[in-house]
Amino acid sequence: MSTLTTRTARAARGVSAEGRSPEELRDLVSHWGAELELAPAETIIEWAAATFGDRFAITSSMGDAVLAHVAAKVVPGVDVVFLDTGYHFVETIGTRDAVGATMDVNLLSITPKLSVAEQDAEFGKDLFRTDPDACCAMRKVAPLADALARYDAWATGLRRAETHNRVIAPVIGWDAKKGKVKVSPLARWSDEQVERYIADNGVLVNPLVHDGYPSIGCAPCTRRVAPGEDPRSGRWAGTTKTECGIHT
Questions:
Q1: Which of these is catalytic: 135, 136, 221, 244?
Q2: Which of 38, 60, 87, 142 is deepest in the core (most CB within 10 A)?
Q3: Is the pTM of this model over 0.90?
Q4: Is-catalytic flag, 221?
Q5: DSSP H stretches of helix in 75-215
Q6: Among the residues of 164-221, which ranges form H helices?
C-alpha cells in the first residue's frame, strides 16, 4: 500500500455511515487540493477511494469510458453513476450497457422523477426547446443531486481543455451546491492524452464521437460539429446555453 493510501485509509476508518460534516470535507479539500494537483489520475482516484470508501462514486455521460476505465483499475467495483435522461441517443445507451457488461464497475443508471411523457403532460411538449434550462434542471441536475445524496465525494470526467468555463477546474474542489468534494482526475489531460489513453488501452468510445459528435448530450439538443468548429458548439446549438448546470 502506498504512503498516500496508508495515510488516507487511516482517516477513512473513523467515518460514520452518515459521512463527514461539510466542515470536515472542506478541510480535506484545503489540505489535499494542492498536494494532488499534479498527481496522476490513478493516484487521485486512489486517494478518493481510500479517503471516502463507499461514500465515493464516479459519474459518466458515456461519451467514452476513460474515467471508468482508470477508476476500475484502482477501485474494482467502483460505483459509476449514469444519468438516463430519457432523451439519449441509442449509441449512448449502448455505450452504457457495454461499460456495465465489460468493466469491473457497479453501474447505476439514474432516471428523473418524471418520464418524458409525464414531463410533456405537466410542462408542455418538448420543454428542451421552450425552456432548456428547466429541462436540464429536471432531467439532469436534480436527479444527480438525489443520486449523490449518499456520497461524500464524486468524480467527474471534466477537463480544463474542454471549454473556457472549465480552465480553472480544480483537481480536488468543493462543490458548494451539493455540499460534496468534487474530484476531477482528468482535469489536466489534453485531448491528445485522452486519445492516447483510449488507443493504448482499447477503451470503449461512444460511436457518435467518430460521426461528428465530439461532445455528446441529449439527442434533441446535440448536433454534429463541422471540422474546425469548437467541439462543444453542437451542444444547445442556436442558444446561448453552454452548460447543463451540473458543473456551474
A1: 244
A2: 60
A3: no
A4: no
A5: 90-102, 116-123, 127-130, 132-136, 142-147, 191-201
A6: 191-201
Tell me which residues of the chain have a pLDDT lower than 70.
1-18, 163-168, 245, 247-248
Q: Are residues 118 and 151 in contact, defined by beta-carbon separation less than 8 angstroms?
A: no
Residue 136, C-alpha cell as written in the block: 436540464
Edge-to-edge, what's the strand order for the sheet holding 56-59?
A: 105-110, 78-83, 56-59, 153-155, 180-183, 172-175
**Which own/partner contact pairs does 81-84 have at CB distance under 8 Å and 24+ positions apart?**
81/57, 81/108, 81/110, 81/144, 81/147, 81/148, 81/154, 82/107, 82/108, 82/109, 82/110, 83/59, 83/110, 83/139, 83/140, 83/143, 83/144, 83/147, 84/109, 84/110, 84/111
Q: What dihedral angle (degrees, nearest 10) is formed by the CA atoms of 190, 193, 195, 200?
A: -170
Q: How do 172-175 and 180-183 pair as beta strands?
A: antiparallel
Helix (H) / strand (E) element for 62: namely: none
How does pLDDT run across 49-66, given as a tens digit for each residue? 999 999 999 999 999 999
